[in-house]
Amino acid sequence: MRAKRPISGLRPRGINRARSGAAVGLTVTALAAGLTTAAGPATAQPKAAPAVTWGCSAAYRIEQKLASGTTWRMCYRHDREAGIALEDISYQPPGETKPIKVLTNARLGQIHVPYDDGQAEYDDLTGYGFGQGMVNLKASECPGGTIKTVKVREPMYADSENVKGLCTTTRSRGHAYRMQADTGNKVFQAQGKDLLVYSVNKVSWYEYMTEWRFQDDGTISMNVGATGSLSPGDYDAGDGRGWPIGNGSRSKATSHSHNVFWRLNFALDGSSKNRIEQYDSVVSPPAGANQGPTNKTTRTKVTKELAGDAKNMRWWRVVSATGKNKDGHARSYEIVPGPTQKYPGRSFTKHDIYFTDYKKCEKFASNNLGNCPAGSGKSVDKWVNGETLKHPITWVNVGFHHIARDEDQEPMPVHWQGFSIAPRDVTAMNPLTPAELAGENGQPD
User: Fold this and answer.
1) Which of 172, 262, 259, 166 is nearest to 222 (CA)?
2) Contact by Cβ (8 Å): 13, 3
3) Over the stretch 361-380, which tens digit does the pLDDT of each residue have?
4) Ramachandran assignment for 320, one of left (phi > 0), alpha (psi -120 to 50 degrees), beta (any other)
5) 240-282: per-residue pLDDT in tens?
6) What is the rounded CA–CA span in Å between residue 393 and residue 412?
7) Dist. CA 352–CA 42, nearest whole Å
8) Mind listing the domains of the chain with CATH numbers?
9) Which of the four pLDDT bands, split at 50, 70 and 90, describes residue 222?
10) What are the backbone angles phi and psi of residue 427, rounded to the nearest 5°?
11) Neighbours of 281 (CB within 10 A)
């Protein structure tokens, strides 16, 4: 056990606060970074930060510096089927002299809606005009933010192709961190801020809220919220496939699933040649009377296309092939699944995550509209065929089984489904670390 170095005159943490050194089965080779410092002339000036380069014109840019000093930058465009697509997404936390590229492209990959009675099944993006269903937002729906105008060809629910449909604003999310010193009343704490980017697309009776949250600690959360109305045309469900809505049991709303896919094209540090790694931990019983259970974590390099399933203590990360943080560790983003109710009725919804090698024609997880060669298949599961991952595309599937209730009338409260990607070794320390704790990085010298 060891005590930490004092923080600005504070005494080291007590030994009772230190954890015992239980061994972990995963072995990681430390990368040594040789750092040299030399005193420059008294007149030397700091180098100016490099100019930010954009891949889009000013009208399509989103740039937000949050109160903590973190800046997010990205471009947006409208996709006829997928709605809003975000591109060239970069993250620049305090202390970094230039933006860190995270994603080339991020958008929805499909919303698949099968009904429990087997009588109806929809691919809302590629079959029912999701992108054309973007609606105008009122100022009250984007408090403290800006509503951007999006050009939508042949809009279904707007009077003009210029739809005021993309809100960019900031939101508080509560504590980013809190740490109380061992002595005195010193408390280190900060309240987190997010950049929120969202739009609303109407598909028949449903309205989908597509939300992207960019946190000041580098995390990105992706969620779809379904609201609007229950379809009155589905009030005749019987045989246990519906729920009574309204007075008595005359109307029974048919239960159904919302299987939402996201398509992410990573480009960590500006390169598409990212690596995929899977981690699994196994807990074993104590080996002796005075020993606790052991937990061994193993890493599997995913070199070929994969249809993966989330399990207890399993996770994946996308690793930069070119960039390292100031500690010499490869930058990566961890995929953090959200709650899901997996739908086993179709082959493409049987898995939680897919990694496929990039093909321009592979655009949507089901009912794909890309002009792929004959025999390629129309869904993401058919594209996992043993190819080596040179330019991985990540597809994430999150399901929700909607059994209606009286409270769904009317309008229907929003029900959310989604997931996050979290930075892992993107920066050498917490990017929001206060100056007094800047020296608390790893083993003291």
Assistant:
1) 262
2) yes
3) 999 999 999 889 988 999 99
4) beta
5) 788 888 888 888 899 999 999 999 999 999 999 999 999 999 9
6) 34
7) 58
8) 60-277+304-345+393-435 (2.70.98.20)
9) very high
10) -120, 160
11) 16
